[in-house]
Amino acid sequence: MMGQQTIVIKLGTSVLTAGDIHLNKPRMVELVRQCAALKLQGHQIVLVSSGAVAAGRSQLAQNVGDSISEKQMLAAIGQGQLIHLWQTLFALYDIPVAQMLLTRADVEHRERYLTARDTLTQLLKHQVIPIINENDAVATTEIKVGDNDNLSAMVAILANANKLVLLTDQVGLFTADPRTNPQAELIAQVHKIDDELRALAGDSGTSLGTGGMATKLQAADIAQRAGIETVIAKGSEADIILKIMNKEALSTTFMRFDAPVEGRKKWLLSAPKSTGTVIVDNGACLAIAQQGASLLAKGVIGVSGCFVRGDLITVTNAQGQAIAKGLCGFSERELDTIKGCHSLDIASALGYKASSVVIHRDDMVLL
Q1: Per-residue pLDDT averaged across 42-61, rounded?
Q2: Hey, is 116 helix, strand or coil?
Q3: 280 forms bridges with which residues in the sheet?
Q4: 120 and 158 in contact (C-beta within 8 Å)?
Q5: Which of 41, 93, 118, 167 is the most buried (most CB within 10 A)?
Q6: Model pTM?
Q7: Contact 86/97 with Cβ under 8 angstroms?
Q8: Alpha-carbon distance 107 to 90, whole Å?
């Protein structure tokens, strides 16, 4: 086993309910026992816990529908129940816990991202287990992360984690759907997520959760690029967390990239939504991908979307493939005016002095 690590463990609704519509306390006790064992070994644990809606549903005698407002109501009821249950179970091992409710806005804005990171760092420093969920009771479509798989990847970056564990109702990623194809084989290790691999990811296997294998691949992709190993495994298997740590579990492991991004670029990778797209020529693609260059106006051949100076935009090649994203030094109107211009001609084209680069290398992360 490796030395002391920070491990983010994402617990899906299907894991916490054991496939029922209510939280399964014996299952949760088992998960807590394993987390306590890892704490004794010196590891730091962060939980990203689904289950608030399921907890809320169990508190009401009448049936409740699945509209957004009804789910937000159930989350408002269930969050308190969920954290109280976790608190009670971890207290059996004298381990304090803390609740953190996040939305996309908390990680999309740099200042709030740093605040969340500092809070998480302090909790771990004081041997508290943070229990994190999306703030479903108030989150709207615009500010929702959308699923706890992607949220867990963002949290792993916030926590500077070594490992992200996604516990679900599947053993891992297969070469085909194991529920319908008996010839399907488990993919034990993934070094790079490509389109062929994404095509293998089907829809959610349960009506209880919001994410399927596709969202787990998205989470693994984010974590990989941030230098974090990701493991998908079946949460109902006995001692599954301990087996993962000992590399004994049936699972799919997404190996971390050898050259992880750091600091500000981790934030760019983890959270903000792109507001526009800039299309660049082959020369600019090569300069960005292979020479560590900034993006200059001369290499820009097209602009789309609506953005202002400082917004995050996606850089694509002429075929529409995303190669990078970063903070743009111009608005979409300005960039459309100066596309193809030499840096020395930007000021005359705009009629005022401006930046000489479209996206500086320090504000860019490769995809």
Answers
A1: 88
A2: helix
A3: 300
A4: yes
A5: 167
A6: 0.77
A7: yes
A8: 27
Residues in contact with 195: Cβ distance below 8 Å, sequence separation at least 6, in sequence order: none
Exposure string (b/e) for 153-191, b if CB count within 10 Å is 16 or more? bbbbbbbbbbbbbbbbbbbbbbeeebeeeeeeeebeebe
Distance from C-alpha of 235 to C-alpha of 171, rounded to nearest angstrom: 8
Looking at residue 81, what DSSP letter applies? H
Torsion sign across C-alpha atoms 212, 215, 219, 220: positive
Q: Give Cα 31 distance to the centre of its chain.
A: 22
Burial degree of 192 (CB within 10 A; 0-12, 13-18, 19+): exposed
Looking at the chain, list the stretches that DSSP marks H as alpha helix, in order from N- to C-terminal side: 13-17, 25-40, 52-57, 68-91, 104-108, 110-125, 148-158, 195-200, 213-225, 240-245, 263-270, 282-291, 332-338, 346-350
Amino acid 204: pLDDT: 42
pLDDT one-digit tens code per residue, 205-245: 443 334 478 888 888 988 888 889 999 999 999 999 999 99
Q: SS3 of 366, please?
A: strand
DSSP string, 250-279: SEEEEPPPSS---HHHHHHHHSPPP-EEEE
End-to-end alpha carbon distance in the chain: 31
Q: Which of 168, 275, 159, 274 is nearest to 216 (CA)?
A: 168
Contact 11, 31 (CB under 8 A): yes
